[in-house]
Amino acid sequence: MRGATHAKWAACAAATALAATACGGGGSDSGSGGDGSAVVSASWGDPQNPLEPANTNEVQGGKVLDMIFRSLKRYNPETGAAEDMLADKIDTTDSQNFTITIKGGWKFSNGEAVTAQSFVDAWNYGASLKNNQKNAYFFGYIDGYAKTHPDTGSQTADTLSGLKVVNSKTFTVKLSQKFSTFPDTLGYPAFAPLPKAFFSNHDAWVKKPVGNGPYAIDSYTKGSQMVLKKWDAYPGSDKAQNGGVTLKVYTDNNTAYTDLLAGNLDLVDDIPAAQLKNVKSDLGDRYINTPAGIIQTLAFPFYDARWNKSGSVKVRKGLSMAINRKQITETIFQKTRTPATDWTSPVLGKEGGFQDGLCGDGCDYNPTEAKKLVQEGGGLPGGQVKITYNADTGSHKEWVDAVCNSINNALGNDKACVGNPVGTFADFRNQITEKKMSGPFRAGWQMDYPLIQNFLQPLYYTNASSNDGKWSNKDFDTLVNQANAETDTAKAVQTFQKAEGVVRDNMAAIPLWYQNGSAGYSSRLSAVKLNPFSVPVYNEIKVG
Known about the structure:
It is a single chain. This protein has helices at about 10-20, 60-70, 115-125, 145-150, 195-200, 200-205, 255-260, 280-285, 310-320, 325-330, 350, 365-375, 395-410, 425-435, 450-460, 475-485, 490-505, and strands at about 40-45, 75, 80-85, 85-90, 95-100, 165, 170-175, 215-220, 225-230, 245-250, 265-270, 285-300, 335-340, 385-390, 415-420, 440-445, 510-520, 525, 540-544. The protein is α+β, with helices and mostly antiparallel strands. The strands form six sheets. Strands 11, 12, 13, 16 and 17 form a five-stranded antiparallel sheet that branches. It has a four-stranded mixed sheet with strand order 1-10-9-8, covered by helices on one side.
């Protein structure tokens, strides 16, 4: 899911793309009021990291942050457009120096006022190398970042020189270069404000995070559940329409689906592949299947010399051509996935940078050519491919087995590919972070913003926040830098497409399929929908 990508040209492109990606489904906000005190139960998985806003770049933790925090901007749950939330105004005359004024009356759920200092302290914490925050990259355009978070060596400053508090409601931001759409990035959770308690008693805060959103965390038992309660004093306009949300941890989404049908669970936001044949008859109009900005890929450990040597490109391309995407998406996913032909998403549209067919023959199923390329590339490292995936959510076993069967058939070797399950998502992510992958591994990207740069820079730019395989290519980096410096939208998109061509030519990752957002819910609920990022809009759900 998450990553930092910024560009000057993005505002117009975002507006164009977002207009076409509104996600709806389920109930309607115009329905009856329901029970505002009743609690929604929903399926979930333990997050990888403590729920610090600048340290969460995966979906499960992101769901919680979206409930307990509000920042300067919020992405409209229907259109995805960046709209003012805590921001009263954000002024600039040169697209490099910004004066940010926050609205009065905002508090954290512990009663502490949200001030300009709440933002500046939070951003400084996120940008500091010693705090090891996964989303530190988001602060990279703020002046002084090179000193608080150098690429090598120790930091020489603890705070960003580009941040200055003017008064309790105003602070200024100086960027290291012009960046006209900087305000539109400020809805991402990494930019959320933090209360003083985060710094004065950090260990206690981590155990029970305190934010300023419509919900407050009541309790969390790892491996079991998190209980969030409606914060009655929440000052925002998007108040919770229910009494709270209990996020229940499931290590198998099939069990979650069974609980939904049995009336023991209200919401499942990832329908298991094994249930897709029956979901419409099971749930009727309580099943949501809507396009989303999500792509699934197979990433490679480029830090392992066996996958990063002469001939490796041919092996990776050969493996890609050994995968029968059409058959897998039709039989396993019942057409809730579409075979990928590039590394972005169709929700971008042509003007936004989507290029149907960019992958070329590398994404075509061609067993003969696949076998030939793998042999020419020196064969499979170690003689076998092990695809690593988390076994607790998403029904990944079914499609991984299908991918391996396809590869085995193409290569004429029933042991060429096997699945390598890891028990939980958190353990899976930890192994990736610790560079323990020895072969291809499941990788999915859920857009932060509907912009082509967001599908490329955080995943493939050298040392980018979500570049889990540690691929590095100077030509790609140069093109991304050029695109980010471009003020003309069309030219920027074209330059990003050239960068995507470098990804293709190196098969930096194998694109598998584009994913729809899917969810099912109980008859107790109404006004259920997924936002353009395929996350339930929890605060709008009504019960009864």
